[in-house]
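In the previous chapter we treated chains in isolation. Here, by contrast, the input contains two separate entities that must be folded as one system, with a combined length of 429 residues.
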Amino acid sequence: MTHCQIIPPYLLEKIAAEHSDPQIVERVRATLRIDQGMRERRMTAVAAPQSTDTDFAVYDAENGTDLPGTLKRKEGDPETGDQETDEAYAGVQEVLAMYSEVYGRTSFDDNGADVLATVHFDNAYDNAFWNGEQLVFGDGDGTYFQRFTNPVDIIGHEFTHAVTQYTAGLTYQGQSGALNESMSDVFGISLKQKLAGQSAAEADWLIGEGIFTAQVQGVALRSMKDPGTAYDDPNLGKDPQVGSMDDYVDTTEDNGGVHTNSGIPNKAFYLAATAIGGNSWDGAGKIWYAALTSGIGADTDFASFAAATVQAAADVSTEAEQAVTEAWQGVKVPVGSTVG
Amino acid sequence: MAESGKVAVTRTGGFAGMRRHAELTLGEDPRTPEVKSLLDRIDLSALPSHQPQPDRFVYTFHVAGKETVVGEQDLTPELHQLSRLLLDG
């Protein structure tokens, strides 16, 4: 069987930066140069009328693991009656609309790429992910987890992994990996709050609310407002997230604790959004989006990203700059310059 | 491969970021024959280097005193079965 593998630029960058064999490093660098050239030519090419029509479709893996599975509903088709299919359809439609209306972005690549989502992946699968090419959602085990298409912020979260891949390409390891995770929570929560019509002050700031069955002692998977408090259950354990650099977890598990330490930039976003006021997706969200798309590198750490958000906020107002600076200080991430 | 000793698997990551761990001792655990049969067909040194994908599970296997990190997307059917046998069994 022919197997086509696409290695994203961020992985190549990582190999180039970290591999010990100079011959491999040079080969990877050559690939990156070719890749960059292709991207520049593509940018020139798309300077012509940009595609504004993004097609999307939902597929069904029918509890197997072959992707994308069987086509169930493409854009414009009526509801299917299958809950997961219709939730994924609505969620993808809504996240595309948010990125277009609020951030002026046309699909995840900003060039109208088609969006594929697969539901009913695997059997009793407690997860959702972006595999570099498409969105995938599991049904949950039914004992602790319900379907992963239910909380719309999960759909926004997975779609944002695609946006990050096509922008900063944040390496999914350590601090850049935790930032990658946090970007997905930031725009996932923005989608949730926008659809609920809730301001930053009104919102609950919970990620994955409604994913647990009634028997789990917990309200959600994560709390951006108060990381580490979303659940505490005899079977599932306690929410391990941290919300301050003082508690940063050094670990080799979960690609360097990307789902644990993401609580730190998550809380910084919550602090900034509530200090700026109004709607998160509009105020703080636009600042975070500007920072993500400002040309930051794949290995950006918390402090460098904080600096990028402060810079983006300074372009908005002195008050926004002050609010964002204090938000990062609130989670003990050093911010380069103090606002005078 | 391993005739005795500890076999362990830890699953981390995934959207939920929850950690699950299970281990058994070969020779003492009733699942020993099936685990040994799987281990005979598993070559942990032949796996591709770990290249993360967002929100995929990450598995760490401890076999014969050696630790190997494998992305969910790189699990062979035998490793998948081994992880299920330990984590769900």
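Chain A touches chain B at residues 7, 11, 126-132, 145, 148, 154, 157-158, 161, 165, 172-173, 177, 180-181, 184, 208, 211, 221-222, 236-237, 240-241, 252-255, 258-260 (CB under 8 Å). Residues 1-11, 33-50 of chain A have pLDDT under 50 and may be disordered. Compare these points with the single-chain example from earlier in the chapter.
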